[in-house]
Amino acid sequence: MSQHPSWVDTHCHLDAPEFERNLSQALDSAAQNGVKAILLPTVKASDCDHVRVLASQYAETIPGLVYTLGIHPLYIHQAKESDITILKDQIEQSLSDPRFVGIGEIGLDYFVEGLDPQRQEWFFHAQLDLAAQYQLPVILHVRRSQDAILKALRPRKIPGGIAHAFNGSFQQAEQFIGLGFKLGFGGAATYERALQIRRLLKELPIDSIVTETDAPDIPPAWFRGEGIAFNEPGFLPRIATVLAEVRGIGRDEFATAVWRNAMQVLPRWSALLADNPNLNLAS
């Protein structure tokens, strides 16, 4: 067994402005801490080329660096309906790229004020249709919108995905799992007051859980006391160690489980890593 278990970050916005100056350093730190796979979701159609380039550029540092393509609900005020055509073209262009693993980040956000729910739903449904057309898993933004998202998923044949930063009810969790989804947990679960998230983490089936940072967002509980400016993928092992403690299992066992879960739900990711003989994969 290696010194570090192999960790997978299923949600990390490496293209965010916070990383412009220190991305190489942040990824070096992540790699040194055993983070061997990171998923970079796109938030705007205009970012697709940049995200694809980043995934290739830093593949030597993080062999399991992959990306998804999509339009985030918080960015639909900048989007045009023609962006769906652009996104479709980008998906078709990326199908031959082994580092392209799905559609995302897409979804609905009923928490942030000022977002047009009908406009959100139009973009979300259009992107779900693309996921169904190309049979690609989706990375979902589900903030206070779990029921509406489940309703949109049910009539479509979509091969699962990840409900990122999940904070719904047990009943909603079970419905996502029944539709082939894993549930993402990260820094929010490191807060002792996050009772519902911790209960989900502790009691849901272990094969339904994946780890994430959502860096540079959702910093862990200790970030203020340690003067951390923003979240980074290199923090994932420490975050996940707390998640394992909440779950009540060993760190290495947890790392192996969440790695297996991520690869199961995103088969193109699994195929990429299976073709890389230099990777010492899950512990």
Written description of the protein model:
Helix content is 39%, strand content 16%. The protein has 283 residues and is of the alpha/beta class. Strands 1-2-3-4-5-6-7-8 form an eight-stranded parallel β-sheet, with helices on both faces. Strand 3 (64-69), helix 3 and strand 4 (100-109) form a beta-alpha-beta unit. Helix 8 crosses helix 9 (251-265) and helix 9 packs across helix 10 (267-274). The termini are close together.
Summarize the structure.
By secondary structure, the protein is α/β, with parallel strands linked by helices. The protein has a single domain, classed as TIM Barrel, CATH 3.20.20.140. Helix content is 39%, strand content 16%.
What are the key terms here?
283 residues, TIM Barrel, 8-stranded parallel beta sheet
**Beta-strand residue percentage:** 15-25%
Please state the second-level CATH architecture.
Alpha-Beta Barrel
The number of distinct structural domains comes to 1
Radius of gyration: 17 Å
Q: Can you write the helix and strand succession as a string?
A: EHEHEHEHEHEHEHEHHH
Distance between the termini: 6 Å
Order of strands across the main sheet: 1-2-3-4-5-6-7-8
- Please state the oligomeric state of the protein chains shown: single chain
| Number of strand elements | 8
Task: List unreliable stretches of 5+ residues.
Answer: none
Our count of helices gives 10
* Overall average residue pLDDT: 95
**CATH homologous superfamily annotation:** Metal-dependent hydrolases
CATH class label: Alpha Beta
Q: How is the CATH topology named? A: TIM Barrel
Name the helicity range.
Answer: 25-40%
| Main beta-sheet strand count, sense and barrel state | 8 strands, parallel
Class of secondary structure makeup: alpha/beta
Which of globular, elongated, flat, extended, rod-shaped describes the shape? globular
